[in-house]
Model the fold of this input.
Amino acid sequence: MGRTARPEAEIAVELMKAMVRLRARLRTESAPEEMRWTWSQINTLARVVDEGPTTASALAAAEHVRRQSMAETLAALRAGGLVTAGADPSDRRKTLIHATAEGRVLVETMPAAREAWLEATLRTQLRKDERETLLKAAALMNRIANDAP
Done:
């Protein structure tokens, strides 16, 4: 007697496959000079730009990575001139990570090619109701990523 997979397990497998494929496709839609930065580096930089100066520990927690991994990411961003580190004026024991002007420009311009491709694909390949379903799915994926109940 064959055992069927639990629906949640099947959903998890299919969702992971789809996310990996979409992520790979989005990377190919970037301009070649943008490929020097890893996905985690760009995500971290975008978080610093969007949320303002923050600590390495807070970034590690927000990105769900170890502090050592975040330290490596931040070292690469500092070496590339995209972030700087300075003392927290309210607590000199803490170091705050700030985006540089170059880092802000990169965050503002890098996604343009990916977003243009994705927007055109959504418009030409999906019906309106399917686009609405994807919007709902994006909200659910964000809840999962944020560990919300």
Remarks:
- The first helix runs from residue 7 to 28.
- Strands lie at 83-88, 91-99.
- The first strand starts at residue 83 and ends at 88.
- The chain has a mean pLDDT of 87.
